[in-house]
Amino acid sequence: MTPEEYTQLKAFARVDGAYLGVAWIISFAFYICGLSSPLLGLLGTLIAVLSPVFAAIRLGKFRDNARDGIISFRRAMAYYILMFLYASLLLALAQFVYFAYIDGGYLVSTYSAVMATPEAEAMLKAYGISTQQMQESISALAQTEPIYIVLNILSMNVTVGIILSLPASAIMKRAARPGSHGQQTNS
């Protein structure tokens, strides 16, 4: 891969990462709103679950429009990982602003209220978790600094991107057809 091709790959991945990051921010906002409105929570979950498909579609558009329909497995993998990295950084920024300046204990108080219901206590008992253990976990969450929460989510998102890049790249790679004058890429 030439330096120009690498610059092109990063530039397109940044744009697609921004699209993906905005989708994740919307999903996160719907999750927070979904704590009091289950329909929004479901919509947020749906957006999150479909985001790897969206990322694969954007990878296909990069392959077809910027790479003339040809992309190697390694280049597709690099593109997908960079897209997830940029999206994760954008989401981390939004989540830090939320947890540091907006939340004000809403998430922890909502979790506490939900876990105090008889249904939640029965569920915890079925899984062998005591109410005391759950309260300690919620208390630990309340004492965790926003930056640590965000860094944990950031690292999970990047790891998921690396893992999902393998099947997405295998599906989206495409070599030049024999006899065509397209550029064969090995990187």
From TrEMBL:
The keyword Transmembrane helix applies. The keyword Glycosyltransferase does not apply. The chain crosses the membrane at residues 12-32, 38-57, 78-101, 147-168. Keywords: Membrane, Transmembrane, Transmembrane helix. Pfam families: DUF4199 (PF13858). This is DUF4199 domain-containing protein.
